[in-house]
Amino acid sequence: MESLIKGLLGVIGAIERVAIGIAMVMMFAIMVIVASDVFMRYVFNSPFAWAYDLISLYLMAGVFFLAVSQAYGAGAHVSVDILQQTFPPRAKRLSECVTCIVGLVAFALVARFSFDRALDAYQSQDVIAGSIPWPTWPSIALVPLGTGLLCLRLAVTLLGQLASLATGRDIIPAVANSHDTGEVFE
Amino acid sequence: ADVTHLRVADSFPSGHYLSRLLLKPWMDEVTKRTNGAIVFDYFPGQQLGKAADMLALTQNGVADIGYVAPAYVSDKMPTSEVAMLPGSFANSCEGTRAYWKVARDGLVAKQDYAPNRIRLLIAVALPPYQILTAKTPVTKLEDLKGLKLRSTGGAQDLTLRTLGAVPVRMAAPDTYESLSRGTLDGVVFPLDSVVSYNVEKLVKHSTEKANFSSFIVAYSISDNAWKKLTPEVQKIMQEAGDATVKSACAAVDQQDAEIKKKLQDAGVAFEPLTPAFSAQLTDLLKNVANEWATGLDGRGKQGTAVLKEFREALGAPAN
Amino acid sequence: MITLIGLGLLFLLLALGTPVGFAMLVAGITGLYLIGGMGMVAGILQTAPLSTVAAYELITIPMFLLMAELVLVSGVADDLFRATAAWMGRVRGGLGMATALAGAGFGAICGTSTASAATLSSTSLPAMLKQGYEPRLAAGVVAISGTLAMLIPPSIALVVYGLLAEVNIGGLLIGGILPGILVTFTIMATVWFLVWQDPSRAPEATPVSWREKFRLLRVIGPMLLLFGMVTGVIYTGIATPTEASALGAAGALLIALWYGKLTPRSLSRALLRASHGTCMIAMILLGAYVFGYFFTITQVTQNIVAFVGGLEVSRWVIMALILCGYIVLGMFMDQIAILVLTVPVVLPLIKSLGFDPLWFGVVKIVTAEVGMITPPIGLNCFIVSRYSGRPVAEVFRGTFPHFVAHLIAIAILVAFPQIILWLPSMMHGGH
Ligand code: NA
Ligand code: NA
Q1: Of C96, C283, C308, whose CA–CA distance to C202 is shortest?
Q2: Residues in chain A closer than 8 A to B154 (CB atoms)
Q3: Given Cys at both, which of B166, B194, C56, C62 links A56, Cβ 3.0 to 4.6 Å?
Q4: Residues 6 or more apart in contact with residue B77 via CB below 8 angstroms
Q5: Which of A32, A59, A60 should be substituted to probe chain C, the one whose Cβ sees the most C Cβ atoms within 10 Å?
Q6: Residue A70: is its pLDDT beyond 60?
Q7: Banded model confidence at residue C431, pLDDT cuts 50, 70, 90
Q8: How many whole angstroms from C371 Cα to the centroid of ligand 2?
Q9: Of C43, C48, C238, the CB nearest to B61
């Protein structure tokens, strides 16, 4: 059980690192594109016509949805843990189980409904009106992709918490390493 | 008595002139004629969601009636753009009448509304957009060369590029800053937006009686909510719609004239296009429309047929 | 009833330590389900997640975060507190006042108060404790000085307000400058008062040579450059606030490069941290939107606002009620969430009472600063407590005098709206 959970966490962690890596590249791209857009407008009187749609359709969605799962694992989503910190270890794990279960339900719904919408946009080949007819489905598909990954992360975390509760061993930490400043990412 | 509550949602700030001139009179009329059997719970100002999400929110019953502006969902309602193409009509009532026809009974109804499971209740076309500039007037085609103009994307991009201008995409509230620093040379705006985004202090020249595009403001009801209404209520809503749309477009045109006067008082010079420019424009803009139509044809959306139908509707006599 | 279920669920989850965004999302979904079944849930969930983040104007969030992270990489921020400390050192309570100044300085390149509090916690807090400052006083001044980052431009909270209220974002950001200075002096005056009351709270610092003082001033250069890059560009209108945020991030990148601190590793770390920050804020935005739609449909907020607006009292009484309401809300809720939940319903009332929405936005942010330091949920106090290892209760006690002083500052801003409105009115012809 323990090795299974650790193995699953390893796999999810690897996928998450790829996803957030792409999100980071997208963030850097936004900076470069917008700064050069201003430059092009001032110096050559020719701003990038594609920048606005590219950024609002794909890049911003990617920056959030491709990072959301890794950010949860790293404890980056702010929580009010003042009460939780006073809980005994088992209660801490139980409260984390509640978070995982409700989060799993909520994000599974988000993933499901947005998957439907992405599929619909793909099948009807929807494009936005404009000089470049960008397809809308890749943008919408980022939602089920990111939240689906988050669901996997929450499911495995839940498993780990339950297994830790059942065995009494610390298979995973009681609380996601919240506000950790020492995260390492290469 | 049985009272049915219908949720109405839009993204206009409460008290906005379009909800005052279009939505409110219609809601009041329906409530009155149903003797209070239909009551509207009105959620203005994006309270139920953003403008671009109104279609989905209406389809899913979050709102029963939503402000579904086709331009914000151009991926789902591409043929409605026919009424926003440049060069097609001279005032709100002309555009409204033609759009009302094609979107209620014509190809636009068949392609934009029916498949999206919504039904058009009321609509107005905004008065034609003008090009307003800060420094140099636009009276001939050469004046547009290299001019940086704020664009909302879509056919407007295509139009500006065809005319030799540089379309710059930005949110409307950013236009003030950009105009004041020459990031923009001008805007393509309906006159009302000139006032609501405060740029009347910055623009000095405006084209007059041109049409560089328009915008369809439309409220639609979901098929689901519609089916739950009795035939009498449906009939009342439609009749109230017919009446309101006529009076609303007239009121919008009236308001446009008043704003024009106000802008003139504020020192904006309205310069008519030279006859030569007018002729060039007609040709160029016809090309924009045709290009738009073939683009849709290529995606199986019958653009050419829609364009033809809309032009016929524009030509049809007012009743 | 459904309203109470939604609220109850929200606070239960928050108490259990569920992330704020998750808790609001779950409570919102539950409420929507109870009102309109799965169809309504589907309607909101198909649209809200994507449209919450997929907007061009929102790039200010990752860009401002990235800018602050890259400044930290460049190392110039490290010297900021040392510089202010050297110049304030000989004054009684000088290190405390230096913390306020460093908070204002760091706030001029950082958009969130939590990031600023974290930075101050790691620089100025240890210095004050080492000097023998009363821990409570030291922690309190660090927590409150961190909040200056959300008032002094760049400010993500002001941008979010501007987007929600459709108020000119450039004007809002510029409008935060003078109140930021006012609040900085308020904090310094509070420190002075506390030390005057009991000098043992703040032992004197060792003097720093003039040479050293001027050497430390060199951090001002790059900081001013960046501040000019963002705020100056916005003030002069060279670029929109949205573009200015990307220019600021690019500028910070160049500064880090100039100081030879930019490595693939440090860059990727800055991007990762900015990405985490973006996720955190966007998740709260998402949860707040969904919860807000639920709350809107129940019409509770509209009814409260209609009730307050209908009171037969002076508009100043209503303004006082609204601000008190915000301070109370700020005790329990995240500030970004408060903006999303309240601005759409409160703003029409504000406008109908004849108040300037730009002025109101800045005043609202000053009350939000208060919320960052009031129990039970005062994020800045948690951060200071976590970084310093001091008990949260002690930090809250230390911020209490600043809470009182802040109320005075708010009263001044309400009484003299020109403090907020003057600078924006000077921007190219006024608004
Ligand atoms: Na700031
Ligand atoms: Na608080």
Answers
A1: C96
A2: 128-130
A3: C56
A4: B55, B68, B70, B112, B113, B116
A5: A60
A6: yes
A7: very low
A8: 4
A9: C43
Measured CA to CA, the distance from residue C276 to residue C32 in angstroms comes to 29
Which residues of chain C make contact with A147, given a CB cutoff of 8 A?
A: 49
Q: Please state, in angstroms and rounded to a whole number, the distance separating the CA atoms of residues C367 and C361.
A: 10
- DSSP letter at A79 equals B
Write out chain A residues lying below 8 Å of C26, CB-based: 102-103, 105-106
- Whether A79 sits inside 8 A of C15 (CB atoms) is no
In the predicted model, what is the mean pLDDT of residues C417-429?
83
CA B110 – CA B79 distance, rounded (Å) = 10
Judge whether residue C389 has pLDDT over 60. yes
- CA of B48: which chain C residue's CA is closest? C293
Does the distance separating the beta carbons of C246 and A35 come in below 8 Å?
Answer: yes
- The C-alpha atoms of residue C383 and residue C132 are separated, in whole angstroms, by 21
Interchain proximity C19–A79, CB inside 8 Å: yes
Does C250 reach chain A within 8 Å, measured CB to CB? yes
CB contact under 8 A, C237 and B183: yes
C149-173 pLDDT, tens digit each: 999 999 999 999 998 988 888 899 9
Please provide residue B5's backbone torsions phi and psi, each rounded to the nearest 5 degrees: -95, 130
The CB density around residue C422, as the number of other CB atoms within 10 Å, is 14
Average pLDDT over chain A, rounded to whole? 88
Q: Which tokens hold the place of B239?
A: 């009749």
Token digits of residue B86:
């440049």
Matching residue, tokens 């409160």:
C346
For chain C, the domains span 1-54, 57-426
Looking at the complex, report in whole angstroms how far the Cα of residue B35 sits from the nearest Cα belonging to chain A. Answer: 39
User: pLDDT tens for residues A26-49?
Assistant: 999 999 999 998 888 778 877 787
Tell the residue number behind the tokens 């969605």, with chain if given: A61
All residues of chain C having their beta carbon less than 8 Å from the beta carbon of residue A110 are: 45, 49
pLDDT at residue C269 greater than cutoff 60: yes
Q: Where are the domains of chain A?
A: 2-167
Angle, CA C411 vertex, CA C410 and CA C415 arms, to 5°: 120
Among A52, B73, A36, CA closest to C57: A52
Tens digit of each residue's pLDDT (9 = 90 or more) over C207-235: 888 888 888 888 788 888 888 889 888 88
Question: CA dihedral in degrees (A115, A119, A120, A126; nearest 10)?
Answer: 120
Chain B residues 10-29 within an 8 A CB cutoff of chain C: 13-15
Cis amide linkage into residue C203, ω under 30° from 0:
no
B38-43 and B4-9 as β-strands: parallel, antiparallel, unpaired? parallel
ipTM for this prediction: 0.86
Mean pLDDT of C120-136: 90
Query: Which two three-digit tokens encode residue C278?
Result: 């973006």
